[in-house]
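Chapter review: from sequence to fold.
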Amino acid sequence: MSGRKEENIGRTGRAAVVVLGDIGRSPRMQYHALSLARQASLEVDIVAYGGSTPHSAVLENPSIHIHTMKQWPTIPRIVSKIFYPLVLLFKALFQFFTLFWFLCVKIPSPDVFIVQNPPSVPTLVAVKWASWLRNSAFIVDWHNFGYTLLGLSLGRSSRFVALYHWFEKYYGKAANGSLCVTRAMQHELAQNWGIKATVLYDQPPEFFRPTPMEEKHKLFCRLHKDLCHPRGGQDCVTAGNLDGTMELWNQDTDETLFTAKMDTDIFLKSNRPALVVSSTSWTPDEDFGMLLEAAVMYDRRVAAILNEDDSTKEEVLWKETNSGKQFLYPRLLFIITGKGPNKEKYEEKIRRLKLNRVAFRTMWLSAEDYPLLLGSADLGICLHTSSSGLDLPMKVVDMFGCGLPVCAVSYSCIEELVKVEKNGLLFSSSSELANELLMLFKGFPDNCDALKLLRNGVVEAGFSARWDTEWERHAKPLISKVISEHCH
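The token string follows.
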């Protein structure tokens, strides 16, 4: 991002970035904060929840100040089920007063509030009232619609969803300006909400890039324990330690699961598994079961193609693979990153799977290691379907920034981002995804031409506009205009 100093926007040179969520898991709002500090030379106050560590660029910037709010206490599930309406009401009130206190008392008065939506209630209400009391401008950054997310759990016909929709629309229209993530969302806001929004596509910042070989090797050394010692017992990745004498990784860090080092040369191992990465929030709008079914189908279809019958013992196959025997189709290692409510449920399902050529790992990576993993992988998988059908998955943007081709679930506006057979493929079922995995990884690692074509397409298309250039072109003029009009 640009580090040059420019004339301050507004009268006091201050902005507040508001997230009713974990700031470490809100990359777009972190990037807003960095741009406001670096490109607009503003002091920036982030008001959010803690939990995950933000990127070091945010933590180390002296103009960015993070204010962490106290979260709503965890309520026993049975209590929240029985008294659901009351719990929902008291939670919203608690969040409102906590947020309102921070916005009106705990932080200096800003020129502009920039708030992430969703969640809409009570966020938009609190920010609107605070902006009125502090004589500040108010901009909404529309990532999705909150009422459609609530509708996933309560149903679109619920009265709560209808009330939520009213609040979201009323207070969204009360903002001084709006940003949104797609053309489709911009059209929806204009046609049905009466809101004029500026499209600011998610773009990868400069630290999302293909990972150099030396950094790959260091990353896999750091991840050795997580990769080679799964909780669910042995699988095709840990096969090298079947007799208790072989180690998958030398303590002098000369060899990892994917890379090897000889003298000063580092290279990728020919019998390595193909590395597939998916990032998920483990929420209802991502059907992770589709990926598990596709993994089982890949495993069974490869066995059928190679004429292996059910009597072929997995230990024999694993020993052959580890000894260097080449197969037409590789082992697949899926690394699933992220935190969320359905994680444990799916981890239990993964442990019950009997797979010969596929292994899964779930982990949470630091903001610095996540781009390195994407830049080291062979394929990205996106299961995001969008509750509104109008937002785009930021994880795919990050993958493209790292030169990684993607297989993504197909929905209404995904082709604004994924160009079929150029930088990725789309699928609508687990069977389609399994077919794509077979097609892309046939002949891995040297003779998988279809995968190479997609990777070349990602690299050639590139991201001519990184986050800082897009923010400079679209967000900064809007923020300047809103503050200027508000001041006068």
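Two observations follow directly from the output. The chain has a mean pLDDT of 86. The radius of gyration is 24 Å.
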